[in-house]
Write a structure and sequence with these properties.
The protein is built from ten helices and twelve strands. Strand 4, helix 5 and strand 5 form a beta-alpha-beta unit. It binds NADP nicotinamide-adenine-dinucleotide phosphate (NAP).
Length: 300
């Protein structure tokens, strides 16, 4: 049987690297031992591209790439993810996240490829006061969120949107790495306790993206690790689990951050993984389990 050909954009990014490892038949770094079901050799053929090999903002390049690669599915992870920089570079944000996605969708249509677009909890304003289901109305409060919503709107009804949040993995910069870099100091640390969400680990998210690519389920999916928390509680847990002193970590309200972050964040962007649950698809584990696995992979 012909392998399922999957094109991954943003393959050198935090998520893309774990995803490429998984699609290549290797357990992602930081995976919970014994949990990841690997695909047999020959089932999937993965092609990874990033800005050095395929700039998604260049329409001609994208169409040519699709013509050459002819993927069955594209998992579109590439994005301009610098949330705060997006506030001062809105054109860049929309160019990559919205126009870039338009190009990917056009390329996919030209070859009949199924698109899976990785999106974000930042499409919501965070003022609903309960977890968001996939059918709730987005209302982004930042340029990044608006540009990612712009990308969502480029998709066709049969395509797939995977919204995730607070992404951490072995590769790239994230909160787990930040806390590890602060672990050995003795100064007090301040993290906000009025922004709530679900940390999500790339080792587990990759598995769900692969499975959705194989099943080609259409529509919007919220895919996060389970268990809402706030940044203060999350950082305390990381500090504790990596052997640091969690009592150094103190809560602070967002309004007292000095300097304030340029991009507003949604105060409560917990994503209910309702579509997975209602379709009887397996949910990701609680974030604390994945955190322990990632810390072990990072040798912390
Ligand atoms: N990180 C999070 O907390 C989070 C939360 C929710 C959703 N997401 C979404 O999850 C996806 C993966 O995030 P991530 O954390 O893996 O981000 P990442 O590490 O920043 O990876 C994104 C990749 O896209 C590349 N890229 C940027 N501009 C491009 C262009 N014009 N053409 C082709 N590639 C380009 C980046 O290259 P450079 O590094 O060279 O710019 C990078 O390798 C993104 O769609 C993001 O919006 C992330």
């Amino acid at each position: 049987m012909k392998p399922l050909k999957i094109l991954v954009t943003g393959a050198n990014g935090q998520l893309g690297q774990d995803l490429m490892n998984l699609l290549g038949g290797t357990e992602p770094k930081g995976a919970i031992k014994g949990r990841t079901k690997l695909t047999q050799n020959g089932i999937i053929e993965a092609v990874g591209v990033d800005i050095d090999t395929l700039d998604i903002t260049k329409r001609d390049q994208v169409l040519e790439a699709f013509d050459q690669i002819r993927p069955d599915v594209v998992i579109h992870c590439a994005a301009y993810t610098a949330t705060d920089k997006c506030e001062t570079e809105p054109d860049m944000a929309f160019k990559v996240n919205a126009v870039g996605t338009r190009n990917i969708v056009e390329g996919a249509r030209s070859q009949g490829s199924h698109v899976i677009y990785v999106s974000t909890d930042y499409v919501f304003d965070g003022n609903l006061g309960r977890p968001y289901v996939e059918w709730d109305i987005p209302n982004p409060v930042s340029v990044y969120g608006r540009s990612k919503l712009g990308g969502e709107r480029e998709l066709y009804p049969g395509d797939t949107i995977v919204r995730t949040s607070w992404v951490c993995g072995y590769f790239g910069a994230n909160m787990v790495k930040t806390v590890l870099s602060l672990k050995d100091g003795s100064n007090p640390l301040y993290f906000v306790n009025d922004q709530f969400g679900c940390p999500t680990f790339t080792a587990e998210l990759s598995v769900k993206l692969r499975d959705l690519a194989m099943s080609r389920h259409p529509g919007i999916f919220h895919v996060t690790n389970q268990g809402p928390t706030n940044w203060y509680e999350f950082v305390r847990e990381i500090m504790d689990k990596c052997g640091g002193d969690k009592e150094r970590v103190n809560p602070i309200p967002t309004k007292d951050l000095d300097p304030p972050r340029p991009a507003p964040r949604p105060p409560y962007s917990v994503l209910d993984n309702a579509a997975l649950r209602l379709l009887d698809l397996e949910l990701l584990p609680h974030w604390s389990e994945s955190l322990v696995a990632l810390l072990s992979a990072l040798d912390a």
